[in-house]
Specification:
Length: 318
């Protein structure tokens, strides 16, 4: 509704909502400030950022597997796209007033979501809150206004789409067999689902940003860009590197290792079928390929991000 009202205001003021016209439209500072705030709240809700994130875990828990995959891999990226396409290039001057607020909100969101992920017992909630942490980190990279930070944010959103989508499919594989997502009912799956355990291990490494996986590239570039912009903020956000390893490894350890549990509804086990193996293998290869062959993506996005950085530098943003 905030975005809708803002578009009505822009149309009544400018007489058009065409993107090329809005890019060149000289909004005064007060107009930019109000419009940028409205756009930020809209895209922060979609991303989502703390405290606009409450809808995401509930949506993931209630959605079927395919819904969670689409939501994590595609729909959340509309928030990042909105920042890149509209907020940053159109309301350039107003970003100076918002950047400190965004830094604080992003750091709080990264740490809060990471700590909340550790205490979850529902596998979908674990992945959902880790998604919140990763997307807050991506927004932090976007507002670094550096080449590395923006490139890293785009790369992390790409990696998050691959890795979180694969993790939700893995949860769907287990739920289809045993009709529960609670971790207390699972343990020792490596003895009965070895192929699943191997594939899940790849996605666990990618989710924690292990070198050689796609998330590592995005996170490394983001931290490099943010450190160049504001070393204190980068230092405050750095514990997320350790926390992501904590919740990723702990999830894998509780799920895969230990003594096999055989409750009355977990008496039969079967490894991934052919379709599930093919789908998860494609995801695993994508996570490794984009982690090792970075230039294929960075060369494509470099011209656009360079233009955005130069636009902000020309207005005194840097």
């Amino acid at each position: 509704m905030l975005l809708f009202a803002s578009l009505f205001f822009i149309n009544s003021t400018v007489g058009s909502t065409l993107y090329p016209i809005l890019i060149d439209q000289p909004f005064d500072y007060v107009e930019q400030l109000f419009l940028a705030t409205a756009f930020f709240i809209t895209f922060a809700t979609k991303a989502p950022m703390i405290p606009f994130h409450i809808w995401l875990p509930e949506a993931h828990v209630e959605a079927p597997t395919v819904g969670s995959v689409i939501l994590a891999a595609l729909l959340l990226k509309l928030g990042g796209y909105g920042f890149l396409r509209f907020s940053l290039p159109i309301f350039v001057e107003a970003q100076r007033a918002l950047v400190c607020f965004v830094y604080v909100l992003s750091v709080v969101g990264i740490l809060y979501a990471s700590l909340t992920t550790i205490r979850q017992i529902d596998m979908k909630r674990i992945i959902a809150y880790s998604s919140v942490a990763h997307m807050n980190l991506a927004v932090l990279g976007l507002y670094s206004f550096t080449q590395q930070g923006i490139d890293g944010a785009i790369y992390l959103m790409l990696g998050h789409g691959v890795v979180s989508g694969a993790l939700f499919i893995c949860v769907g594989v287990l739920y289809d067999r045993h009709h529960t997502r609670l971790l207390r009912y699972y343990s020792g799956l490596v003895t009965v689902m070895p192929i699943f355990a191997c594939l899940f291990f790849v996605f666990t490494l990618a989710n924690m940003g292990f070198p050689g996986t796609v998330n590592f590239v995005g996170e490394f570039l983001i931290y490099a860009g943010v450190f160049d912009r504001n070393a204190f903020i980068a230092t405050m956000a750095a514990p997320a590197i350790v926390l992501s390893a904590v919740y990723s490894i702990w999830l894998y350890n509780r799920l895969i290792f230990g003594t096999l549990k055989t409750q009355h509804y977990l008496q039969s086990f079967s490894d991934t079928n052919r379709l599930e193996r093919h789908i998860l293998t494609i995801y695993a290869l994508a996570a490794l390929y984009f982690g090792l062959s970075t230039t294929d993506i960075l060369d494509v996005i470099y011209p656009a991000t360079k233009t955005l950085v130069e636009l902000n530098a020309a207005t005194g943003q840097l």
